[in-house]
Specification:
With about 700 residues, this protein is α+β, with helices and mostly antiparallel strands. The protein folds into 3 domains: about 10-40 and about 70-400, no CATH class; about 415-555, Immunoglobulin-like (Sandwich), CATH 2.60.40; about 565-700, Immunoglobulin-like (Sandwich), CATH 2.60.40. The chain is about 35% helix and about 20% strand. It is built from 14 helices and 22 strands. It has helices at about 15-25, 70-100, 105-115, 120-125, 130-150, 155-170, 180-195, 205-235, 245, 265-275, 285-310, 320-350, 360-370, 380-405; strands spanning about 425, 430-435, 440-445, 450-455, 465-470, 480-485, 500-510, 520-525, 535-540, 540-545, 550-555, 565-570, 575-585, 585-590, 590-600, 610-615, 625-630, 645-655, 660-670, 680-685, 685, 695-700. A hairpin with a 2-residue loop joins strand 9 and strand 10. Helix 6 (about 155-170) runs parallel beside helix 8 (about 205-235). It is elongated, with a radius of gyration of 37 Å. Mean pLDDT is about 90; it is low at about 315.
């Protein structure tokens, strides 16, 4: 792996137990077709919200992956059985931990269920990931520790605890924390047992022999089981934990950051603990996480309350035994230790991944079960929390995962209707319809615009083209743009059938600093990403460039405050008022004169009007200079004006070089596109002659 652009080199320092097990299970199944699955989506990494299925797939998924599959597809599915096995083992170990903590089957089953229906843990147990192995071995190690805390230390359970702690250390480095925690528990329990010896046995070396024997048995077993891997890392990398292999990746931090600076990453950590699928970028809506967290924190708080308060004599059957309190503290210290280890890891690497807390999933379930147990009617509490977890876990495959990665639904082209004409691209692809979602007539700067577009293949395509969706402004400047494989990264053009169509929803975020108001043009097309060449577009046999299919008005939510240097109140048919103007007082012959008209709309304008500014002297048959255009040079026509709109409208007049020096009158007005007639205008009830609004005089100077 000489080219480490993916950061895969970090895996060389990962403990090997999960990967060795997976390799053993999948060995009989050939994976020689693995490279055929690596059809990369060039749009992967687009920052769409976690609830939006937009380029979340790193790879293009095809019919080759249909169940059960063959070759590498089948080999990958068999490999995933490794995670499923470790997930099952975690549930069993959680049940055992619950039995030692509570001493009854109901609470033990509840503990196991809280693991079995944890949404993110179920997902992790279904993909190729060593997190399930870490969860299984750590939970099993806690079970073994809780077992000797309740039943006493023997050489046999000391060996078992040491073996499990060593195996856990071969899954993830965070599992190393199990060694000191289990060792201290074993030391304490062994010491407690010496106090129960008879006076004859409670003297001299005999007093400490059992303690030393248990500790040495545990420690040597753990070292023989797992220490060899960390010795290997020390020899190869000079670092037993291999941390440098992680910190030198793209997501490694140059220097450790403060805990305070990790606060912005906490929401992502919380989401990915409860349920963030794919690469942690497929989410539920925020309220789902809020409800889960609120219920869990309330349950944990009740468990702490039960630990700190003894039950009254009338409810002695609900009191917690001393051994259960110790095991509860074991679970609490383990959860806090894993969380602290993750925070330390996040200080060095950008890794707000909730799955890294799963070595403590069994202990977490035990803490929750403590809060749910010991009530007169515990089944209702059990049902509320479990039903919530079951609902999220059950809905995840269809509502989140399949909905995000599956290709778009194919539909009959006859079922697709729209108000725009079909656009044919290079006689290969057909844009059946395009429209702004929700028929939004207006959007504001900074807002999200969703464009629905439906496609069909006119002929089979062998090349994979990229879709571009753009909003164009003055001088065809690009206001906002999206580029993606069709199907939002999931349906390349080479897969399109000719007899079926599909629809996409492209999201465009408008910049906050757009010069508004304006009517932006919506352009949709296809291009070859390797050459940058666009496919020519035609409508009814006529080439269109750019391929504009619609438009949308972009206007600020609050209209611009008008502050003209020369105020006016010139009213046009009670629908439009010219509030004033700005202009140059002097201009040189051969130069340009800039005039800004400040319009205000009082009603919806139905007619297409032209605004004009003329340099003209009464009695002359023609203007010396003029500028006639729809407002804002055609980018905000009167037909899209609404009551309350304020429109700064710039007009630039080219002054003839031969114009003699002197003072010249400037006039403005509006006329209809349909017949050229001017719109009557008046101020304070007095009409302006010839429907012309005087803008004063301009001094024209001679050319130097």
């Amino acid at each position: 792996m000489t080219d480490d652009t993916s950061g895969a080199n970090q895996e060389v320092a990962q403990p090997p137990l999960y990967y060795a097990t997976a390799a053993l299970i999948s060995a009989p199944f050939p994976d020689d077709t693995l490279q055929t699955l690596f059809w990369h989506n060039p749009g992967f990494g687009y920052q769409a919200p976690g609830t939006v299925a937009d380029n979340k797939n790193m790879l293009i998924h095809t019919e080759q992956e249909r169940f059960p599959g063959s070759g590498a597809v089948l080999a990958v599915r068999i490999t995933r059985l490794t995670s499923l096995f470790f997930g099952w083992l975690t549930v069993v170990a959680a049940w055992g931990l619950g039995m030692e903590l509570f001493g009854n089957r109901r609470s033990a089953l509840l503990t196991a269920a809280l693991v079995a229906f944890h949404p993110q843990f179920v997902f992790i147990s279904s993909v190729v990931s060593n997190d399930s192995a870490a969860a299984a071995l750590c939970t099993a190690g806690l079970w073994a520790t809780a077992r000797f805390l309740r039943r006493g230390v023997t050489p046999r359970n000391a060996i078992m605890a040491g073996c499990l702690a060593g195996l856990a250390a071969l899954t993830k480095t965070s599992a190393l924390l199990l060694l000191p925690l289990a060792g201290l528990c074993l030391l304490w329990k062994s010491w407690q047992q010496t106090r129960e010896l008879s006076p004859a046995e409670h003297t001299g070396f005999r007093r400490h022999r059992n303690v030393l024997q248990a500790v040495l048995t545990f420690g040597l077993t753990a070292l023989l089981t797992g220490a060899w891997w960390y010795g290997r890392n020390l020899v190869l990398y000079g670092d037993p934990l291999g941390i440098s292999n992680h910190t030198q990746t793209l997501w490694g931090r140059p220097t450790p950051v403060s805990l305070f600076s990790l606060l912005p990453e906490m929401p992502l950590l919380l989401r990915s603990f409860w349920g963030a699928y794919g690469w942690g970028h497929i989410w539920w809506h925020d309220w789902v996480y809020a409800v889960l967290t609120f219920v869990a924190l309330g349950t944990l708080a009740r468990g702490v309350y039960r630990m700190l308060h003894r039950a009254p004599s009338s409810n002695a059957d609900t009191d917690i035994a001393p051994t259960a309190r110790i095991i509860y503290l074991l679970c609490a210290f383990w959860v806090l230790g894993i969380f602290a280890a993750l925070l330390q890891w996040m200080r060095q690497v950008e890794a707000p991944h909730g799955r890294l807390l799963f070595p403590a999933i069994g202990a977490w379930a035990g803490l929750l079960a403590m809060g749910l147990s010991g009530t007169e009617r515990p089944q209702r509490r059990h049902q509320a929390l479990l039903l919530l977890l079951v609902a999220v876990t059950t809905l995840a495959p269809g509502a989140r995962i399949l909905a995000t990665f599956a290709p778009p639904k194919l539909i009959s082209p006859t079922a697709i209707s729209g108000n725009t004409p079909s656009v044919l691209y290079n006689d290969e692809a057909l844009l059946l319809s395009a429209a702004i979602k929700g028929n939004m007539a207006r959007v504001s700067p900074g807002e999200l615009l969703v464009v629905n577009a439906c496609w069909q293949a006119a002929h089979p395509m062998s090349h994979d083209y990229t879709v571009f969706v753009q909003l164009l402004g003055p001088e065809n400047s690009i206001i906002s743009s999206r580029r993606t494989y069709p199907g939002l990264g999931r349906f390349p053009t080479s897969l399109w059938p000719t007899d079926r169509g599909f629809c996409d929803a492209y999201r465009l975020t408008l910049p906050a600093d757009i010069d508004t108001p304006l009517r932006a043009l919506l352009e949709i097309g296809l291009f070859d990403a390797t050459t940058g060449e666009r496919l020519p577009a035609q409508v009814d046999g006529t080439t269109i460039e750019p391929p504009v299919v619609s438009s949308v008005v972009v206007a600020a939510k609050t209209s611009h405050a008008l502050a003209p240097t020369s105020p006016l109140t010139a009213q046009f048919d009670n629908a439009i008022t010219l509030r004033g103007y700005d202009r140059d007082a002097m201009v040189q012959a051969g130069g340009t004169l800039t005039v800004t008209l400040h319009w205000e709309a009082h009603d919806r304008i139905r007619e297409q009007l032209i605004a004009f500014v003329h340099l003209w002297q009464p009695g002359e048959t023609a203007a010396y200079a003029q500028h006639d255009s729809e407002p804002r040079n055609g980018w905000f026509p009167t037909t899209v004006w609404q009551a309350g709109d304020t429109i700064p409208d710039i007009h630039t007049l080219s002054i003839p070089a031969e114009l003699p020096p002197g003072e010249y009158s400037l006039w403005a007005g509006l006329y209809r596109v349909s017949d050229g007639t001017r719109i009557p205008v008046q101020e304070n009830g007095t009409p302006f002659p010839n429907a012309l609004v005087p803008l004063g005089s301009v001094q024209i100077t001679s050319r130097e």
